[in-house]
Design a protein that fits this description.
The protein is an alpha/beta fold and 262 residues long. It is built from 8 helices and 13 strands. The protein has a 6-stranded parallel β-sheet, sandwiched between helices. It has a 5-stranded mixed β-sheet with strand order 8-9-7-10-11. Strands 12-13 form a two-stranded antiparallel ribbon. Helix 1 crosses helix 8. The longest helix is centred in the last third of the chain and has 15 residues. The relative contact order is 0.16.
Length: 262
């Protein structure tokens, strides 16, 4: 049985924990949260070790769901110790040098860091197409107005008063990640699998006509072309996140424990 440490116990981490209860091949044996959150997490996960750092022993695998700061503080040291890690906050890799640091730490620890696909599909096809030559990749993210609250989308517009779809951003994936860090995971994932942060085009839309998070990826190149559109239900605990992100994380964990994986 693989012993898993969860970094973060918010909307995503808590949901992953609930889905893994009773799993035959995996067990959450540690939860890592800031010191002030230890008591609350312990109450929600009785019997699980809760601490403010990843245990140095007794852990086979780490899943990060807590953002850029957690990658710096917890994932890099775990990798350097030789513990494989799965990263859900792929948007953090849009920060300069983050991807290089992760790779260097994994090499130092002779282990691997895996980035999950999260809320988007066709990442395997996009990464394969890159090998044959990609010409263009475009990602469009369409979410209900309330999902963009607390972001630059509120500047110059009343999100609650929108009556039709409004483009709130159009530019590179790198700029999208800088301005919308809490909504950047899909754009960053598409970029890392394809043409990179500077050559991947991103359009973000606030649409009062949708109650779902709609992700569309269009790619063209020597392989041909594809267009994928996904309509994801938002995570109840956090409308900025698609519920599929949780399932993607659980799938990645279970693939590590499975004899046959796809």
């Amino acid at each position: 049985m693989l012993r898993v440490a969860l970094i973060g116990f918010g909307a995503i981490g808590g949901s992953v924990y609930e889905l893994l209860k009773g799993d035959a091949g995996l067990a959450v044996t540690a939860i890592v949260v800031p010191a002030e959150g230890v008591a609350a997490a312990q109450a929600l996960a009785p019997g699980v070790q809760v601490a403010s750092s990843v245990p140095a022993s007794g852990i086979d695998l780490v899943l990060e769901t807590a953002g850029h700061a957690a990658i710096e503080e917890h994932v890099l040291p775990a990798l350097a110790r030789g513990t494989p890690c799965i990263v859900a906050s792929v948007g953090a890799l849009s920060a300069g040098g983050c991807a290089d640091k992760l790779e260097a730490a994994a090499l130092a620890g002779r282990t691997q860091v895996q980035l999950i696909a999260g809320a988007i599909g066709a990442i395997d096809a996009l990464a394969a197409a890159r090998l044959g030559g990609l010409d263009s990749v475009r990602y469009t993210g369409r979410k209900p107005p309330q999902a963009w609250k607390g972001t630059p989308a509120e500047q110059g517009r009343d999100l609650g008063a929108l009556t039709q779809a409004s483009v709130i951003f159009e530019g590179s994936a790198r700029e999208a990640a800088r301005l919308y860090p809490k909504n950047a995971n899909v754009a960053a994932t598409v970029s890392l699998a394809g043409l990179g942060l500077d050559r991947t085009l991103v359009r973000l839309i606030a649409d009062p006509a949708t109650a779902e998070n709609v992700h569309t990826v269009e790619a063209e190149g020597a392989f041909g072309s594809f267009a994928l559109s996904m309509r994801n239900k938002p995570l109840a605990a956090n409308p900025k996140t698609s519920a599929l992100t949780v399932y993607s994380a659980v799938r990645a964990l279970r693939n590590r424990a499975a004899a046959l994986a796809i």
